[in-house]
Amino acid sequence: MGIISSGFHGKRQADNPALPPGQYETGSFPVLSAGPAPHIPTEDWEFFITTEAGRRHAWSWETFMDLPQVDIPTDIHCVTSWSKLGTSWRGVSLDTLFEDVETRCEYATAHSYGGYTTNVPLPDLLGGRSWVAWEFGGEPLERAHGGPARLLVPHLYFWKSAKWVNGLELTQNDVPGFWESNGYHIHGDPWREERYS
Ligand SMILES: Nc1nc2c(c(=O)[nH]1)N[C@H]1C(S)=C(S)[C@@H](COP(=O)(O)O)O[C@H]1N2
Ligand SMILES: [Mo]
């Protein structure tokens, strides 16, 4: 048959339409971080959006929590080939956060506490496709997974979902972030296997 199935790592299911090409399903939730997990008390947490005009929109944890919260059922896909199907998150849609933001920029760089960055085109962030998520599986997001809050862009490979997210810097050009400068694809669509550059 030519199919090697390992119960430990999960199995490739070529016939599962929820799995992008080259991915296998896992039941666990691996932790992948390029450095130590920063500790951000919610009293100190802030989320910002800066525009090309120099405007800075910012939310404290309190004002962020006052925004409409939504449940987000979604699958997630890591470039290292694991996919986790049927995860549930809660957070604020980027559409909500962008309501008063005026910009002609087409890209954003997500900045995280701790220094991680990743670039995402605005069309991938808007239209109900991304969130700032603070709850996973009905519990506050664990620090290892990006708590108090992380970006969630589940239709792109999971490295785009910046943990410990601090804000978005809008940019005119597509500026490679941390992994994008280290060989990962500039865009990262798992359905097109945009893994490496
Ligand atoms: N701030 C920050 N965000 C990050 C990373 C990181 O190292 N730092 N790693 C990315 C990568 S490569 C992946 S696969 C996912 C892993 O998220 P998880 O640890 O919750 O599984 O987070 C992404 N977001
Ligand atoms: Mo990753």
From TrEMBL:
Domain Oxidoreductase molybdopterin-binding residues, every copy: 35-179
Pfam families attached to this UniProt entry: Oxidored_molyb
UniProt-annotated stretches for the region Disordered: 1-35
Record-linked InterPro entries: OxRdtase_Mopterin-bd_dom (IPR000572), OxRdtase_Mopterin-bd_sf (IPR036374)
Domain of life (superkingdom): Bacteria
Signal peptide interval: none
PANTHER family, per the entry: OXIDOREDUCTASE MOLYBDOPTERIN-BINDING DOMAIN-CONTAINING PROTEIN, PROTEIN-METHIONINE-SULFOXIDE REDUCTASE
The name this protein goes by in its record: Molybdopterin-dependent oxidoreductase
Lineage: Bacteria, Bacillati, Actinomycetota, Actinomycetes, Micrococcales
